Amino acid sequence: MVNFRNIHPRKRIALVAHDNRKAELMEWAYANREMLAKNELYGTGTTGKLLEETLNQTVIRLLSGPLGGDQQVGSMIAEERIDLLIFFWDPMSAQPHDPDVKALLRLCVVWNIPVASNRATADFLFTSPLMDEEYIASQIDYSTYLNRKV
Ligand SMILES: O=C(CO)COP(=O)(O)O
Asked: Which Gene Ontology cellular component terms are annotated (predicted)?
């Protein structure tokens, strides 16, 4: 059995970037400022601060990633409070909070969240007609797991 989740036209978007990719995210965000302005934005601490300066738009700021920000985004996804994630993570540097990064990306799969880890994917997502529409996301039914005998 499959469940469904409604994603509204005004989406709740989380934006996150590791330090080596923050400039790239800011450049992309500025180029997409009109689309971003139609949505509600969330960001981890430092990324959120830079985004507010770049976009002149309110960004709801969570903790900095290594201090728990990635986990906050993950818990918001699990509570159905984030619809889409743009996460420019750094494939070339070790992160002190690597388990948190992995946990966040895992929850995106668990909850069927669209994720962009690079600019090309972010461009494809943001030019999708679904950005301006309601979207019914299918949600795997975890009841077998929840009702398992332990
Ligand atoms: O570390 C991060 C994501 O894993 C991002 O955190 P900041 O936006 O606070 O730099």
From this structure: cytosol
Structure tokens at 8: 């509204």
- Tokens (6 digits) for 84: 């889409």
Atom 5 in ligand 1: residue holding the nearest Cα: 65
Q: Structural domains in the chain?
A: 11-132 (3.40.50.1380)
Q: Which of 70, 90, 98, 123 is catalytic?
A: 70
Q: What is the pLDDT of residues 93-139, one digit of tens each?
A: 999 999 999 999 999 999 999 999 999 999 999 999 999 999 999 99
Nearest in space to 5 (alpha carbons), one of 137, 132, 108: 137
